[in-house]
Write a structure and sequence with these properties.
The structure is a homodimer. Chain A is of the alpha+beta class. Chain A folds into 2 domains: about 80 residues, Nucleic acid-binding proteins (OB fold (Dihydrolipoamide Acetyltransferase, E2P), Beta Barrel), CATH 2.40.50; about 300 residues, Bira Bifunctional Protein, Domain 2 (BirA Bifunctional Protein, domain 2, 2-Layer Sandwich). Chain A contains 11 helices and 16 strands. In chain A, the strands form 3 sheets. In chain A, strands 6-10-11-16-15-14-13-12 form an 8-stranded mixed β-sheet, with helices on both faces. In chain A, helix 3 crosses helix 5 and helix 3 crosses helix 11. The radius of gyration of chain A is 26 Å and the shape is elongated. The model of chain A has no long low-confidence stretch (mean pLDDT about 95).
Chain lengths: ~425, ~425
């Protein structure tokens, strides 16, 4: 459709073409008609372009897709210092329906259900779009950090034979006439792959049949997983977490337009992220010794403490009780009721869970026996350990939680293109 | 476990440390005991290290995980010119079971079922591992090429409300008590997202309940998807495909060790990949005008022709009959029985499917009406077009097929870590 003879120029490149005849193309973001002059604001993937109209009778529905040939003209009054004059306008596709709200409003004036129900059009709002651009940058930063440290990307099965890691909250499907399950995490597979590549990561969907309707749970989310061998203990994993989170934040920080649009307070990542042992956290919070998990309020209190004491948006809570961790968790050698595991809290919310895993075959058999769990459903998984596995550990980060916390959204659904939850299966 | 005081050095870096005391760590790949001297070959993520033994009575099971402190000593007889002498050996984890075959054999001596059944250990064989390293490189090349051209990464739902794109071959699951389906492709979502970002890509799992047990079908595979707006027609998509495939091949070609190990014949990618219209292909193959699809033998014949006539491992077949393409396909303007779509064949196998899509809302309504399909199940999808969408198109590449063809594997399962098919749900 675009005339190949005249180059298409993106909004952000226009100022390099003053005086030239170019084409711009995009969505009609806004039409402002004054008495004798009018303006079309065209939105393309890079930004906004102002087009000066001389035909006072022109009527085009907003969100229509236009291709405009015209002259790039300097105008210090225009939003980016240039505008298009003498436009020839071609309609590529007329908008047949109006969006649920004006997409040119600087902030989003709609409720969450409206945003989600009409996501194919509401996501076009520059603020909503920006959140997902930051999300993409964060994932790129995750991959780059790990690739630089010798990690290999893997793709593991999302359909599994047994609902092993946690019997609850698993989706069942019909696998050629027999039951199978959607994977709740790539945990077992990434551990197996340490035996092959030593260092692996995966960025992919995981599934939780969450019966709770909360602002921080999704039935499908994007899990950023890493696992690696030849560690001393979980402290080596935490060092890796620190470098990966710093890489993600650095990649996000490069998206200056979106950062500004969303007024994001980009966190600094301390060289050494402060840490607090679970037992010390309990003492600090005045909880009893039989407490084995942190409530959301506890996480907020610990984060507030980290911000105040250490000036850090991040804090590791280490040593979670073994009773609250899965069977593959490595215990703390000196205090085996605690574990060589951690959570990373980010501004009051659990962002990353990780730790050292068991690596010796007999230790797995013993751990399952102590928990009264059968060995048989885990046989394929355990075989890797019978064939020799190094001390290893890893972590998983929920992408949507990270982005929601980063942009200050109070619901993780605002960091998900098309969320899935107890009530939502479309669009 | 690793002594932090002595640095761990990878096999490929050892030659930079001649004369130094270092640590190496990895799996015991092979133990060779001669009369008065023995050798341990240690496999780490980078390669192999030879360790010279002086204790003739040492017995360690292969695949045990060892950490070895010793002196890096030049020896032109050693595989990489250096070896470790005066070793102190520490066992990190003993192998309790033997692999199904010796992992040090240069080629893989086992049948496909053995390889797949025992994947957690057989994938450690350097040749099998190498295929997956090339796969990771290919995905990185895909992403880099697209990111450089302004594409944004997206993550779309894998659980969908209706089995819309093709009613057959879809997995059904229990979604909080009601039926839902596993996504067969991100097609609809990537099109919607053209309305937001103009240019998007996704690398993720897709699911096909394939009732056929063939060497080229999987029930879960990794689909590399891209979609973008403001095209003239499918030829613009094919130009993009060419640049992305070239980027993938270039990324693969950098993995020289794996290329050599697998004796991969890295294909050149012509500046302009040759193309053949479906109608012309039919004439060339002597098929009747009522033929609407290519059989595998046809694809092989066309590829052979491309290799002979054009010296190309790649060829586009364009203009597939509309009768064989989904409803969202854009017809060929001059001959509407054909379409603005294409397949890319690579060495005899369909690798990529793509084309221009319909972009106007009324065209969608008409296309569904002509096929006698109801509008209602597509309403969420169609709404994006009612809100204004540019001319657009895209493509999808099956990662495992690409890798299998690249390495000359006759079964796509050899390019999949843990394949899922009609009969296989584990490991």
């Amino acid at each position: 459709m675009i005339h190949r003879s005249t180059p298409r120029v993106l909004a952000t490149q226009l100022s390099e073409h003053v005086g030239e005849t170019v084409q711009v193309a995009g969505w009609l973001h806004r039409h402002r008609q004054l008495k004798s002059i009018g303006f079309l604001i065209i939105r393309d993937r890079s930004g906004l372009t102002q087009v000066v109209l001389t035909d006072p009778d022109l009527r085009i529905a907003e969100e229509s897709v236009l291709q405009i040939r015209g002259v790039v003209t300097a105008n210090s009054q225009a939003p980016v210092g240039v505008e298009i004059t003498k436009p020839e306008i071609m309609m590529l596709a007329a908008a047949e329906q109006a969006p649920p709200f004006d997409l040119y409003r600087p902030t989003v004036p709609a409720s969450l259900p409206v945003l989600l129900d009409q996501a194919p059009v509401t996501l076009r709002h520059p603020q909503l779009k920006a959140a997902h651009a930051l999300s993409a940058a964060a994932v790129a930063g995750f991959r780059t950090s790990l690739a630089e440290q010798g990690f290999t990307e893997i793709h593991t099965p999302k359909i599994v034979e047994s609902a092993t890691e946690s019997g609850a909250n698993v989706f069942t499907l019909d696998w050629f006439g027999r039951p199978a399950y959607l994977a709740q995490s790539p945990q077992f597979y990434k551990q197996l792959m340490v035996g092959v590549f030593e260092r692996v990561y995966e960025t992919g969907p995981v599934f939780r049949a969450e019966p709770h309707d909360t602002a921080r749970h999704l039935a499908q989310y994007t899990s950023l997983d890493a696992e690696f061998g030849f560690i001393s203990d979980h402290q080596d994993v935490m060092i890796m977490v620190r470098s990966v989170v710093a890489g993600m934040i650095a990649a996000v920080a490069e998206r200056t337009a979106e950062i500004e649009l969303l007024d994001v307070d980009v966190p600094g990542v301390p060289e050494v992220i402060p840490q607090l042992h679970f037992a010390d956290a309990m003492r600090m919070l005045g909880k009893g010794e039989d407490t084995i998990d942190l409530a959301p309020a506890d996480e907020r209190a610990i984060s507030a403490w980290a911000a105040e004491e250490h000036g850090s948006d991040f804090i590791f809570v280490t040593g979670y009780p073994m009773a609250k961790r899965p069977f593959y968790t490595h215990p703390e050698p000196e205090r085996p009721a605690y574990s060589n595991s951690f959570d990373l809290l980010f501004r009051g919310l659990e962002l990353i869970t990780g730790g050292q895993r068991l690596h010796r075959y007999p230790d797995y058999l013993q751990a399952l026996a102590e928990r009264g769990e059968p060995v048989e459903p885990y046989q394929g998984y355990l075989s890797a350990f019978a064939h020799g596995m190094p001390p290893h550990g890893g972590f998983a980060l929920g992408l949507e939680r990270f982005v929601a916390r980063l942009i200050g959204a109070d619901n993780v659904r605002l960091a998900t293109l098309f969320p899935r939850d107890l009530h939502r299966l479309a669009p």
